[in-house]
Amino acid sequence: MTDATSAARWRTGILAAVLIAGGGGYWIGQRGQGEAPTGATSNARKILYYYDPMFPNQKFDKPGKSPFMDMQLEPKYADEGGGATAPGISVDPAARQSLGIRVVAAEMGSLAATFDVNGTVDFNQRDVAIVQARSGGFVERVYRLAPGDVIRAGAPIADLQLPEWGSAQTEYLSVKRLGRPDLTAAARQRLRLMGMPEAVIAQVDRSGRTSGTVTVRAPIGGVVQTLGARAGVTLAEGQTLAEISGLGTVWLNAALPEAQSGAVQVGQRATAKLTAFPGEAFGGRVVAILPTAAADSRTLTVRVELANRGGRLRPGMFASVALGGDASPALLVPSEAVIRTGTRSIVMLETGDGRYHPAEVQTGREGGGKTEILRGLVAGEKVVASGQFLLDSEASLTGIAVRPLEDAK
């Protein structure tokens, strides 16, 4: 017998043994579907379903290869968790200590109602005065002013020569000499309609002389934003001579995250702190919440009006402002206990005897490291505040269903 012949017979014997073993196993498996095999114990583990460990939410009735990955499906037994007999994830005390699992009870408390946002000081755009020429003429003199100067109310801006006013004053004095009160009143009213101040009309009455020159004064105190008056310049009726922004009050425009926009309302009090005045607080109130949000930062602009005594608050200064309403009682858990998946929020409940179960919750406000729970928990239930991500991963892997909101106590 040659070596080649011996090797061929050896391979043939091995193949026959494999086929016999495979056929016997298949036969035993087929018998097992109809009756228990001989010698089977009564406490055999019950298989609930089969699953792919990479896609634990997909369940299969029969064993085989996973349609997702090139691997065999794993059996899920009733005593492993996820079945009715053993809900949740079981962790022994030694493992809990090594994983650093910390449990905190949900409790009623008062959530901090205020939160800080940043902003910048700006001019109060409602406190603006526009100085215009009431009649055509020219500028005789401009007082020493420039854009950016701070002036007081009543400060002179420019002297104007208005020929039309001079002729109207001459006509008024001529009518007054006639001694006809009705005509005099009509002529006086014409001077008012031309925009002539009462002080100028009274001076004409007292002196009996006309004057086409008038001094234009600042109607409010503040900052000169623009100055269009220049000596010798010809003026048209309605031409702007100066624009003045008041400084009695200023606006603080703060960037409010849109997630917190529901906690701020017009009329609420606000407290601002500026780096320029450490240790000092400036009180104000919310006068407006602008209707559009910034697309890049997803923030709304909240406008806070602040009193500006002494003109200390200057536009462009940086400030932080505390916003919010009154504190109200709420069911609170540590913010670190909440797992946000993008579509819902989940906490890991301690159900007793070292077992844990995921539960869906609806969250509300946040502040001071606490999160308000609107639905899904009741006071006294214990949640995992540290190590919850490992438990959540295990729950997802083993296919444990998350307790829905409507099943909460």
Keywords:
single chain, 409 residues, alpha+beta, conserved putative lor/sdh protein from methanococcus maripaludis s2 fold, 5 domains, 7-stranded antiparallel β-sheet, 6-stranded antiparallel β-barrel, 6 helices, 22% helix, 39% strand, rod-shaped
Give an overview of the whole structure.
Helices cover 22% and strands 39% of the residues. With 409 residues, it is of the alpha+beta class. The protein has five domains: 1-40; 45-80, no CATH class; 90-112 and 329-407, Beta Barrel (conserved putative lor/sdh protein from methanococcus maripaludis s2 fold); 114-124 and 247-324, Efflux pump adaptor protein, beta barrel domain (Elongation Factor Tu (Ef-tu), domain 3); 128-245, OB fold (Dihydrolipoamide Acetyltransferase, E2P). It is rod-shaped. The two termini are 83 Å apart.
